Amino acid sequence: MSDDLLPPLPQSWQTTDILGLENLSLAEIRIWLDYAFRFKKLTNDCSKKVPILEGVTCTNLFFENSTRTRVSFSLAAKRLGAEVVEFSASSSSLSKGETFIDTAKTLEAMNVDTMVVRHQTPGTPQLLTEHIGCSIINAGDGPHEHPTQGMLDIMTICQHRTDIKGLTIALVGDIAHSRTARSNIWGLKKLGAHVVVCGPPTLVSRQWERHGIEVSYSLDDIVRRADVLNLLRIQFERQYTRPFPSVHEYALLYAMNRQRLEMAKKDILIMAPGPINRGVEITPEVADGPHSVILNQVTNGLAVRMAALWLVHQAAKRQT
User: Could you give phi then psi for residue 61, rounded to 5 degrees?
Assistant: First the structure.
């Protein structure tokens, strides 16, 4: 089966790497969305195999713990017929003193076509592009960006709303440490949404106002006018000091619960990138209720990652 099942890659898609949504153009974001929806349809809601990347080798180069993203990328590659190599940092030559760049070069010498990279240090995927020639997809670099998560969130909104332009979309929680928040902000802003960041003052900087982002410190003040709420996990593992007195107090002020849902628009979308902390960012009846599209996000993650793998491969092939 050939990739003529899909329209040719538009000339406006030039990148062989996906490092973040901040450095993608509006045209590129729209192309990625278009192909994600095409892949979702082509693979029967991401359940069917369409082997259009046979002969392509992808490796998951993860230096941070991950379940959802790693499995999603692996499944996406396998749905497209690619070979997948899983890399474990703990059992690699890095533990013997080999450098990160040398490890990547070694993998590239084994004819790897695409590296999906997660690392705790911001800028690591960009660093790799300066030393190796295969395509790099950022699967999360510290608190910097998580472009595929941002895109699957955007795709989910598009699935339930005709157009993102003009929507009020609130990102609630740990904005300071969230790479998901940053990718959402850049992508949503380019697509014309009114973006609000909301959370405790210790986790939400007024500096976002310089980028045209509304800053709020009260969920109750914004919940009535939000079209979408994306409830972000508190990233305790990236915090050096506790940014609020207690989890109970955070939940009291910022958890989406039944009472706040009654205040919201009747068609509000409730999202969460996972893993969700029930009773902290969101209560169980809201997470499992009719406004929640959390499981849609998981399925759309496969489509977005299939599209990402195909796009960078097509761009690289065009350049050879």
Answer: -105, 85
Three-state SS at 271 = strand
pTM across the whole model: 0.93
Strand pairing category for 135-141 and 269-271: unpaired
The H-assigned helical ranges of 134-207 are: 147-160, 179-190
Q: CA 52, 116, 48: angle at the middle one, nearest 5? A: 35
Q: 168 is written with which tokens?
A: 């009020």
Structure tokens at 35: 């192909």
The residue among 79, 154, 63 whose CA lies nearest residue 116 is 63
Q: Which residue type sits at 137?
A: I
Q: What CA–CA distance (Å, rounded) separates 216 from 222?
A: 8
Tokens representing residue 125 in the block: 């995927």
Q: Which domains does the chain have, with CATH numbers?
A: 3-145+299-319 (3.40.50.1370), 147-298 (3.40.50.1370)
pLDDT, the chain, mean: 92
The position carrying tokens 């690392």 is: 119
pLDDT above 70 covers what percent of the chain? Answer: 92
* Listed residue (16, 21, 308, 306) closest to 191, CA to CA: 21
Among 269, 264, 140, 281, CA closest to 203: 281
Q: Count Cβ atoms below 10 Å from residue 203 Cβ, excluding itself.
A: 24
| Beta strands 168-172 and 214-216, pairing class | unpaired
